[in-house]
Amino acid sequence: MRRITIIVLLSWFIIRSHAQSNELTEQLGNIKLEFRLGDSGIAEYAVYFKDHVVIKPSALGFNLKNNPALRYFKIIRSERKTFDETWKPVWGEVSQIRNHYNELKVYLQERNEPNRFLNIVFRVFQDGVGFRYEFPVQPHLKYFIIADELTQFNLTGDHKTFWIPGDYDSNEYPYTTSKLSEVDGWKLPVLSTNSKEINEPDQYAVQTPLTMKTSDGLYINIHEAALVHYPSMQLHVDRKSYTLSCNLVPNALGDKAYLRAPEVTPWRTIIVSDKATDILASKLILNLNDPSKIENTSWIKPTKFIGVWWEMQTGKGGWNYSNNLDSLDANGKLVPNHRHSANTENVKRYIDFASKNGIKGLLVEGWNTGWEEWYGNWNGGPFDFVTPYPDFDVKAIAQYAKQKGVNMIMHNETSADASTYERQMDTAFRFMNKYGYTSVKTGYVGSIVPRGEHHDGQWMIDHYVRAAEKAAQYHVMIDMHEPVRPTGLQRTYPNWLACEAGRGNEWNAFSDGNLPEHETIMPFTRLMGGPMDYTPGIFKIKGYSAVAGRQVHTTLTKQLALYITMYSPLQMAADLPENYEAHMDAFQFIKDVAVDWDDTKIIEAEPGDYITIARKAKNSSNWFLGLITDENARTSSFKLDFLDPNKIYAATIYRDADDADWKNNPEAYTIEKVLVNSNTLVNIKMAPGGGAAISLLPATSDQLKSWKEYK
Ligand code: NOJ
Ligand code: CA
After folding, report:
1. Which protein residue has the closest C-alpha to ligand 1 atom 7?
2. Is 464 exposed, middle or buried (0-12, 13-18, 19+ CB in 10 A)?
3. pTM of the model as a whole
4. In ligand 1, which atom is closest to the CA atom of 535?
5. Catalytic one among 93, 311, 506, 519?
6. Which residues form ligand 1's pocket by a CB distance below 6 Å?
7. Do 653 and 692 touch, CB atoms closer than 8 A?
8. What residue owns the CA closest to ligand 1's atom 6?
9. Distances from the Cα of 262 to the Cαs of 142, 241, 538, in angstroms?
10. Residue 646 CB neighbour total at 10 angstroms
């Protein structure tokens, strides 16, 4: 049994001076934090980058239910420390992460009775600031209810903003790029033809992670880290003053959070740089999360997988075995509709494909009873997570998968009935253990049960953490669909490999889809919190849907690039085996690409326009690159100076054909095989809505003889 090795390469902290003034500052590199108490005793903070103001003085504090507001303070003391440690994530974009910050902790006490206490902890990193509130043990604050968190982010101007509305139950919106003064969640670009429950009570609220660009070229990202036992934070936009204020997602009674001191809130995070690439490279959110709570992590393995899935998404098959639960046959059995994708024979076909091509995982949805009435009834979930449909032979499939070296991925759609799932979880995980399922994809489609709760409220936040902990107890990796968006908890629960919590590739199957710029925005927004199960790799870009006009809004080679630009330790090859078999030369990239990394170089990036990323595979000399553009064609030029200067690499370049175009000619691609080294300057042309993928493997002696040098 391998124990977790958190190798602390360098770790030290120094406690520095105490101070008593009403104004305190802390700094690291280009980032400066100011804290002060206003005349009335309201606590305020401000953030600076170089000589720019990032956050103007902004208020802090709370309104409590049935209690006076916790807002007017005096400083009793403050404490500073410096911390510098390098730690190793169980998996990730890099194999070592430096966590370096200066901390300022301010101990506050209410000016008037009941003289309650509140501490605010600020951590100043080289790329931003995190802060959180601590409610220490005290006589006049024990059990309490947060009515409002009063945290503000007072911005300096009408920044360009990449936003989705503040829905309490969903992040699956297309991004709007607009000025802050134009944010209006009720005026959406109506991209989707799919009806969905919209739950955005505040017309001017937006979701985080929120990325903005200022007119003087700063990139600012606001989000939160370590969201546990507290509701998710949305931001209300004051369209005149450009002040963002914390909106916590309420529970069924309209309350925000039930706490008992001692307690801490999640961290509020502000990442800032004058380089967009620094935003994508930031590890601030991960660093603010606790180290792994799982000691033995040897069973946690990043993986690629395929799924009996896209055929349901596109309507070729179905999740449900029958069409009507109320009309049974003469033996009292369900009447099969003969469209049920999760049947033993079809599943074996997918196992064969995975096994033949070295894809380790297979997800099968629609294997269990309940799919006839799974959606939209709010009547409690129809699933028990252990009863297969009659044509899904769970035992035979488990044996066949084992024999072929394929790991089955369980699917537990809960229909948002989290209370049933809480009762069934142990049984469900025991079932997975029994049949050799090493991971599970959970899902929360619909309105939450317990009724009145929200996907992003405190009750569900507790539920997601319980599900991750429960999965860990059974050595099962977990991928959650429709949860709250992630906040770096993958550091603490490394078996929580990925989440959806965003508008995935699947929207191209059942709606108008995603705009060509979508994937250039997501890494700056949704992915700042953690990996996304985006489900890339669709090769049949058009003609998969019976609905006219539906297509994927990228070229084929852009789908390959997403394996690099959309970071996840869990990557699906989402298309059907037969669609891959039509393009095995391009599928080679999916076979080769790694899912766990020693190093990552963000080569160039601009939200809404383009992203180029290079990653070095874990414990290997292989590099993989992904380049994507928006609706505009683009040529990307850069030097491969990250390569080992002593090696020659065999580069396989998968790029758009010269006449490719996401709309009219999306499946046209060219594959070039050439020799490169660390001095090579590449020029890669991308089509409108296009992209490119490159694999760089140390050249073999045969390749050295027969492949040409890159020109
Ligand atoms: C929504 C998920 O995102 C999708 O991947 C899944 O197939 C359906 N729910 C059914 O669970
Ligand atoms: Ca653009």
Report:
1. 309
2. buried
3. 0.96
4. 5
5. 506
6. 309, 365, 413, 443, 445, 481, 500, 506
7. yes
8. 443
9. 8, 35, 49
10. 7
Measured in Å, residue 112 CA sits from the centre of ligand 2 at: 53
> What are the start-end ranges of the H helices in 80-230?
none
As averages over each run of 10 residues, the pLDDT of the chain (711 residues) reads 42 52 94 96 98 98 97 97 98 98 98 97 98 98 98 98 96 96 83 63 96 98 99 98 98 98 98 98 98 98 98 97 95 96 98 98 98 93 96 98 98 97 98 98 96 97 98 98 98 98 96 95 98 98 93 98 98 98 98 98 98 98 98 98 98 98 98 98 98 98 98 91
Is residue 62 within 8 A of residue 1, CB to CB? The reply is no
Q: Tell me the two tokens of residue 442.
A: 């959970």
Give the ligand with the smallest distance to the CA of 608: 2
Alpha-carbon Rg for the chain in angstroms = 26
Burial class of residue 14 in the structure, from the number of CB atoms within 10 Å of its CB (0-12 exposed, 13-18 middle, 19+ buried) = exposed
The SS3 assignment for 258 reads: strand
CA distance 644 to 414: 48
d(C-alpha 534, C-alpha 165), whole Å: 20
Helix (H) or strand (E) holding 650: strand 649-656
What are residue 510's phi and psi, to 5 degrees? -120, 15
Q: Can you tell me whether residue 145 is helix, strand or coil?
A: strand
Tokens of 85: 């440690």
Residue nearest to atom 2 of ligand 1 (CA): 481
Return the exposure string of 423-435: e unless at least 16 CB atoms fall within 10 Å of the residue's CB, then b. Answer: ebbeebbebbeeb
pLDDT the model gives residue 187: 83
Six-digit token pair at 418?
A: 């989290």
Does the CA dihedral 578-579-585-587 come out positive or negative? Answer: negative
- The residues, ordered by sequence, that sit 6+ positions from 373 with a Cβ below 8 Å of its Cβ are 325, 382
**Cα 700 from chain centroid (whole Å):** 37
Cβ-defined contacts of 587-590 (< 8 Å, 24+): 587/357, 587/539, 588/652, 589/560, 589/563, 589/652, 589/654, 589/693, 589/695, 590/304, 590/359, 590/537, 590/560, 590/563
Residues comprising the chain, all counted:
711
Determine whether 506 is an active site residue. yes
Q: What are phi and psi of 468, to 5 degrees?
A: -65, -40
